[in-house]
Design goal:
Blueprint: H1 22-42, H2 53-57, H3 59-82, E1 92-93, H4 102-112, H5 125-141, E2 150-154, H6 157-181, H7 191-194, H8 199-208, H9 213-218, E3 232-236, H10 242-250, E4 257-260, H11 270-282, E5 287-293, H12 305-316, E6 323-328, H13 351-357, H14 364-370, H15 373-380, E7 387-390, E8 403-407, H16 445-457, H17 465-483, E9 487-490, E10 493-499, E11 507-514, H18 520-533, E12 547-554, H19 555-558, H20 563-568, H21 573-579, E13 581-588, H22 597-625
Parallel strand pairs: 1-12, 3-4, 3-5, 5-6, 6-7
Antiparallel strand pairs: 2-8, 7-8, 9-10, 10-11, 11-13, 12-13
Helix pairs in contact: 1-4, 4-16, 5-16, 6-10, 14-17, 18-22
């Protein structure tokens, strides 16, 4: 008999703002510990315990136990006094920290008792199988073909991005190596044509020469050859800094990475992308790949993945091909909200009805504010890119560290594989070979258990994670609407709040500005000062009543994309040219509670009061200085 997953109630899945679910947490965790100890006791029961009652009654044993208790008291004191209260239902509107799923915390803690190392099957049969399942689940969430795709967990999004570039680099160089090893398969192709072969074309050739695979790999970019021929890696200005580190580590160099302008909504400008690709092609420079971002780090915006794919199809007809990687470290799990209970991508005109059926939004007006065809098409097109970064430890609400990567065509693994004879049998099946196909070596089986358990509790569609994604988006729009047109009176001055842009997902950026102020440096200082008081810098941690994050949008990284926002606030173009940056406050709306209207309204009053008090401190300090 198949177990039927009930309608998910998010409030049952978290420890709670005030630890309301502590009894459930202790019940399941204690059961897990008891079962683990029973497992130890049942293994070779004829063996006598090595820690005897005599050992436990000795003075040194008792002293050591008391010493351990003392250290844990110190640990607790440090954590209680030096940790961010990201668990709150409405006080923390800052970085990508949040309440994590109770099932995943318990699973992680439980699996740590077994200390599995997922580098190889022989050291972690149970959790290696879980990681294999998780990889297939993530591929399914991306609508990759079952049986043809593959994925795995890694430490974080930076590692996953590095792997994406690693795949792209090696794949791009394979045709040059094939020309040396098996030239009959690329007869008549110029170097330019070899460097613009599609991923599928390359993989199909590799399928035909399995006996020469190792020789081809040995002559590919992994040897250090061809790195100067592979071309440019194009990323949006909203890129994560990991791409520069990846280019450095992978050997293509920082000069191979170029940032393409974003528009005033902080999405990659596809017109400028095409223009730059054509300009490079005219110079004879290939395009190694293009990165589209699903949930940019500073703004949470969604690049037009569908247009990046369409542009590739258009240019491929002209002999120009590029690899596509979707950096969905932040927004990848949001694809679950577009999948029905059968994991099929929902038609755009049916979304509203499906969301009503599954209670995805408590207020459908907020869904209407959020959903656009652009967002929908971007998520749908993710199925057409080669590789995708997805971080369970972000929108998966799973403890650190849990990044992941999904690969559309599992044959690509052969381009990056390594085999350590003392760990792997080369002809063995995945998951036994996991470590041969990933960047890392030893890795925690507990992470796989945490992700696997979360996915079992919350299916990767509207019946599970879709609810959690909907709650997050709804909370973001409640916060966005709270900010709009809000004013504060401080010492006779009026301070206004201005959201940066309508969120594509669940991140809300905003600024404070004094009415009538035309000095951009003054506004930047106000927002930086506000961050100081709304953070550990001056506001403290545990007793802070409103916590946020901040960043700078500066010309070296963003070009003039912030200029329209700055002009809308009343600043001149010359003022923007003079200051060259705008300081932004940033809120990731990750609370699983703040989507509820009553909860949000209760905290909105407290947030407004806290903002008022922080602004008064800032202006009082300025008066004291004068």
């Amino acid at each position: 008999m198949n177990y039927q997953i009930p309608e998910i109630n998010l409030k049952a899945l978290f420890l709670g703002d005030k630890g309301e679910n502590v009894d459930l947490f202790k019940e399941v965790l204690l059961k897990a510990v008891d079962e683990h100890v029973g497992w130890r006791q049942n293994y070779q029961p004829q063996d006598l315990p090595v820690i005897t009652p005599y050992d436990k009654s000795s003075k040194s044993f008792q002293d050591t136990a008391d010493h351990m208790r003392s250290v844990f008291n110190e640990l607790s004191a440090k954590l209680r006094s030096e940790s961010l209260p990201w668990h709150t239902a409405g006080r923390f509107w800052g970085h990508m920290n949040s309440e994590t799923l109770m099932p995943s915390i318990i699973a992680y803690t439980t699996a740590m008792l077994w200390n599995g190392n997922n580098v190889a099957y022989e050291s972690s049969p149970g959790t290696s199988q879980m990681e294999e399942e998780v990889g297939h689940q993530l591929c399914k969430m991306m609508s990759y073909k079952e049986g043809e795709s593959w994925g795995h967990i890694c430490a974080d999004g930076s590692i996953a991005n590095l792997e994406g570039l690693w795949y792209a680099r090696n794949m791009k160089s394979l045709p040059l190596a094939i020309k040396e090893v098996a030239p009959e398969y690329v007869v008549g192709k110029s170097e330019w044509e070899l460097l613009n072969m599609s991923t599928n074309e390359i993989l199909d050739i590799m399928d035909q020469i399995p006996d020469k695979l190792d020789e081809v790999k040995a002559k590919s970019a992994r040897s250090g050859r061809y790195l100067d021929k592979l071309g440019k890696w194009l990323i949006p200005q909203t890129k994560h800094y990991s791409w520069l580190k990846a280019a450095d580590i992978i050997g293509i160099g920082l000069e191979s990475v170029e940032a393409v302008d974003v528009d005033s909504e902080y999405r990659m400008d596809i017109t400028k992308l095409e223009a730059r690709i054509r300009e490079l092609a005219a110079e004879g420079t290939p395009i190694l790949g293009v990165v589209g971002v699903i949930g940019s780090t500073e703004e949470g915006q969604i690049d037009h993945i569908d247009r990046i794919v369409a542009l590739r199809e258009k240019l491929a007809a002209e002999g120009i091909y590029y690899y596509i990687h979707a950096d969905a470290a932040y927004g990848g799990y949001a694809r679950a909200i577009f999948l029905d209970e059968n994991d099929e991508f929902i038609d755009y005109d049916k979304l509203g009805d499906v969301y009503k059926e599954h209670n995805i939004f408590t207020d459908m007006n907020l869904y209407d504010q959020w959903m656009t065809e652009d967002i929908y098409k971007s998520f749908k097109a993710m199925s057409q890119v080669e590789t995708i970064t997805i971080d369970p430890h972000k929108m998966g609400y799973i403890p650190y560290s849990a990044g992941a990567i999904a690969i559309r065509d599992s044959r690509m693994r052969d381009a990056i594989s390594y085999f350590a004879t003392y760990v792997f049998e080369k002809d063995a099946d995945i998951p036994a070979l996991l470590g041969a196909y990933i960047l890392e070596g030893s890795k925690a089986g507990a992470t796989a258990a945490a992700v696997w358990t979360a996915h079992k509790v919350l299916p990767l569609n509207v019946t599970g994670y879709g609810k959690l994604m909907g709650a997050s988006v709804e909370a973001a729009y409640r916060f966005y609407n709270f900010l709009k047109d809000r004013k504060f009176n401080v010492n006779g001055k009026v301070i206004e709040l201005h959201p940066l842009t309508k969120p594509d997902f669940n991140m809300v950026d905003y600024v404070f500005n004094e009415v009538g102020n035309t000095d951009l440096e003054k506004m930047n200082k106000l927002n930086h000062d506000f961050f100081d008081y709304a953070s550990y810098v001056k506001g403290g941690l545990y007793n802070n009543e409103f916590i946020t994050s901040h960043t700078d949008f500066a010309i070296p990284d963003y070009g003039n994309s912030p200029m329209q926002f700055v002009q809308n606030l009343g600043f001149s173009v010359s003022e923007w040219d003079r200051v060259e940056k705008v300081t932004i406050l940033r809120a990731c709306a990750l609370s699983p509670y703040a989507h509820d209207a009553a909860v949000f309204e209760e905290y909105a009053e407290k947030m407004e009061k806290a903002m008022q008090e922080k602004l008064e401190k800032i202006y009082m300090y300025e008066m004291d200085e004068q």
